[in-house]
UniProtKB/TrEMBL annotation:
Organism (species): Thermohalobacter berrensis
Name of protein: ornithine racemase
Keyword Ligase: no
The protein's required cofactors: pyridoxal 5'-phosphate
NCBIfam families: racem_Orr
GO cellular component: cytosol
Length: 354
């Protein structure tokens, strides 16, 4: 048994997926399952497929390569790099785009491969990450795409919350719907997909405020952690522990709570501060900041306090715990979204399915 490790409960991921898919299906929305947080691990993606997603999506071509045998359309979430357009056409059926130069290159590479690559044009509704911001440019882009061979415009989409923290609302998503109608009316084109964002849009479904023309959401965190991301609320009847971090104690000793001597910088260039609580029982575990941010792990034993970490060591206060820990014992944590991302990215953290 290898430690530290992330334990992945595939049944819980499948369950969460089905809950979200059913919630969305009730109002005519298909779910694109986002696999980037778990680095495109095929078994987890397959659990999402079993839960009912319609499209598999990731930000990295490297992950879509791992998932090439899954019999669903593949979507590249991050805007394509010009240097990767050939691979994008090879491994992704659809991509999100906001630059004509890139779309023209995708057209060129698709023609070389005898394919038609589908494009979703991203619209910036104010979060100020990717997307066309000036409304007058949207029709120009669409008109140019219509005249390109090798690519097909299948929809428009937006991204909210991820950068600027702008919360999806009936008002801002209705702007996306209005843009869709204007495109169809003025340019005689039918758009199949109106993608209304990510897990931060889920709250609109619960409020009954999702514009009815929105027919796609790109969901990752709501599936893997069972929470919407506009306000951080738990989604009813979902699990928040589909991913658990388990670490091993390598030292257990009673020590002062304040270091002895002049305090300088720690291993990461910061000057730490300490609260004097007297002598405390401290457990050191074999994981560190190279693998995880301590802000992203939540001890399942609520009596454990996280004191800090260096690159390879996690230091815990276990003084108040009922359990009499010993060296070699395991301690488990729930993970935030960032915790899932970082721990699964680390090659020093094992991944097992339960």
């Amino acid at each position: 048994m290898m430690y530290p490790r992330v334990e992945i409960n595939l049944e819980k991921i499948k369950h969460n997926t089905k809950v979200l898919v059913d919630k969305c299906k009730d109002i005519g929305i298909e779910v694109t399952g986002v696999t980037k947080s778990f680095c495109g691990i095929k078994e987890v993606a397959e659990a999402m497929v079993e839960g009912g997603i319609s499209i598999v999506a990731d930000s990295r071509i490297e992950n879509l390569k791992k998932l090439k045998d899954i019999k669903l359309p593949k979507l590249l979430l991050r805007l394509p790099m010009l240097s990767q357009t050939e691979q994008v056409v090879q491994y992704a059926d659809i991509s999100l785009n906001s630059e004509m130069e890139t779309i023209k290159k995708l057209s060129e590479k698709a023609l070389e491969k005898g394919k038609v690559h589908k494009v979703i044009l991203m619209i910036d509704l104010g979060d100020l990450r990717e997307g066309i911001f000036k409304k007058e440019k949207i029709l120009k882009y669409v008109n140019q795409i219509k005249n390109l061979k090798g690519v097909k415009l299948v929809g428009i989409g937006t991204n909210l919350t991820c950068y600027g923290g702008v919360i999806p609302s009936k008002e801002n998503l209705s702007k996306l719907v209005d843009i869709k109608k204007e495109i169809e009316e003025k340019l005689d084109i039918k758009l199949e997909i109106i993608s209304g964002g990510n897990s931060s849009s889920i709250h609109l479904i619960d409020k009954g405020e999702m514009p009815k023309e929105i027919n796609n959401l790109r969901l990752g965190e709501s599936i893997i952690l069972g929470r919407e991301t506009a306000y951080g609320n738990k989604i009813e009847n979902t699990y928040d522990d589909g991913f658990r971090l388990v670490v091993e104690i390598i030292e257990l000793k009673e020590k002062p709570s304040v270091p002895i001597g002049e305090i300088g910088m720690d291993a990461f260039g910061n000057k730490p501060t300490f609260e004097d609580k007297g002598i405390r029982k401290r457990a050191i575990c074999a994981i560190g900041k190279q693998d995880i941010d301590i802000e992203d792990i939540i001890p399942e034993d609520k009596c454990i306090s996280i004191l800090g970490a260096s690159s390879d060591h996690l230091i815990l206060d276990v003084t108040e715990c009922d359990k009499n820990f010993k060296v070699g014992d395991k301690i488990s944590f729930k993970l935030t979204y960032g915790g899932v991302v970082k721990s699964l990215t680390s090659e020093y953290v094992s991944k097992i399915f339960i």
